[in-house]
Specification:
74% helix, 3-stranded mixed sheet, two-stranded antiparallel sheet, Rhopdopsin 7-helix transmembrane proteins, 5 strands, mainly alpha
């Protein structure tokens, strides 16, 4: 049904899996394995942070939030992708697309803010260790975490409302693996200038400002660590930050490529694959990165296993 060249859409066609018919089962198995591992490993970190006294600190409180966020990330995207792969169809309902975009983009903004808070936590711990317990109190942690989640969901509400107010004139093929803002903007036959400005201007506060705070925090951290005379002391200080810094590089690198650049007129392999970095691979890698060299987590794990 058309009214003034606008089409009332009831569904979108996901094109991310086109030309992959022969390897659908292989891709399905890979995504299912990634999803199960991500959920189980991040749940394991949350449980450890809750039950082990050694992990009752602000750093692990924020890490627990990050793990929960990673579970939400993958649950927003992968089950729907598995559904499309399993029953060999490519459509997603209009309402389901709206909800997926809203929640997914909420988690994008929340993680940007949360990574900045985690950098601030490391800055205080290394640069002001004597005042750490006075600055990073329990109620402060709760307030910072709440602000991150509220900021992420508010940011997403603005983008989602303006994205789905755009007119769609017949074309309903989303050239991506799930509903996201850049591919949706390419479908609209209306003026997307405001939407692009929103991505850039709100991105300044939800992404660039946190990134600047992270860079500033690490500038002070590096300056402080380099003043430590003992090599062992410097290595210990850097080891508490290396995991977080690795996650920041992976996450922000892929997010900046996807959202904080002009919306491309033509799709490319990179345009579709790079969003998978922060929506699927980063949640998978986060628990590995944070636990691989973390002695506290290893000790807590051995303690729990010894009681089993």
């Amino acid at each position: 049904m058309e009214m003034q060249n606008e089409t009332v859409l009831t569904e979108f066609i996901i094109l991310g899996f086109q030309n992959l018919q022969e390897v659908r089962l292989l891709i399905f198995s890979g995504f299912l394995t990634i999803y199960l591992f991500t959920v189980l490993w991040n749940t394991f970190i949350i449980i450890l942070a809750l039950v082990d006294q050694r992990l009752q600190s602000p750093m692990y409180f924020f890490l627990g939030n990050l793990s929960f966020l990673d579970i939400c990330y993958t649950t927003t995207t992968i089950p729907q992708m598995l559904d499309l792969l399993l029953i060999e169809r490519s459509s997603i309902s209009y309402l389901r697309c709206v909800l997926q975009l809203y929640f997914f983009f909420s988690f994008v903004g929340t993680e940007c803010l949360l990574l900045a808070v985690m950098a601030f936590d490391r800055y205080v711990a290394i640069c002001n260790p004597l005042r750490y317990t006075l600055i990073i109190k329990r109620n402060v942690c709760l307030q910072l975490a709440t602000a991150c989640w509220a900021g992420g969901f508010l940011n997403s509400a603005v983008h989602t409302v303006y994205a789905f107010q755009l007119p769609f004139c017949g074309e309903n093929h989303i050239d991506a693996f799930y509903c996201d803002i850049p591919p949706l903007l390419k479908l609209s036959c209306g003026d997307i200038t405001l939407n692009k400005r929103l991505l850039l201007t709100i991105g300044l506060f939800i992404a660039w400002t946190p990134l600047f705070c992270i860079i500033l925090s690490y500038a002070y951290i590096i300056s402080t660590v380099l003043k430590i005379r003992s090599t062992e002391g410097r290595q210990k200080a850097f080891s508490t930050c290396s995991s977080h810094l690795t996650v920041v590089l992976l996450y922000y690198g892929s997010c900046i490529f996807t959202y904080l650049r002009p919306v491309p007129t033509q799709s490319s392999v990179n345009t579709k694959l790079i969003p998978l970095m922060y929506s699927i691979l980063t949640p998978l890698l986060n628990p590995i990165i944070y636990t691989l060299r973390n002695k506290d987590v290893k000790t807590a794990w051995k303690s729990i296993m010894g009681k089993v």
